[in-house]
Amino acid sequence: MTPSPHHGHDALIGRPTVSATAAAGMLRRSLLPRLPHLAAGLVLAASFPAWGQDTHSLNGTTVTIRPSERAGAIAQIDYSNKPVNGPADEISFDLICCDLTVVVVFDWNADALGSDAIAVTPPEGVTCLPVSCILTLPEGEAGTVWLFSLDGVGM
Q: Which of 55, 99, 135, 144 is most buried per CB count within 10 Å?
């Protein structure tokens, strides 16, 4: 039997081999029909937040909890205030990360200047910095609330 130009036999390990041309043909036949599904999966994966964080959006204003970059903090809540909110956005919601569930309340026009605020209620045994657990920001500004274990700060 004469070997075809597309198939051979690897004498060293005793298994059939496939030429690059044949492999490319197999990939074309097996992957091309699935390409729309693969592309949809990539788009869907890109729409989810990064692993280990949870984000809530209020018409473009975002509040995200994620593992902290600050020494000693167990998590941080990043708040980005956009000039898009109104009274309908005054809601509370849960954010989950790092084995923590925090409750966040959004307060529209929290001060006389029209700044918006978030108030964070951490679980028992966790405290915030700022200590008030409230972050008030003018429109277009961003800020962070850090969460610390009371055990970690000696309380």
A: 135
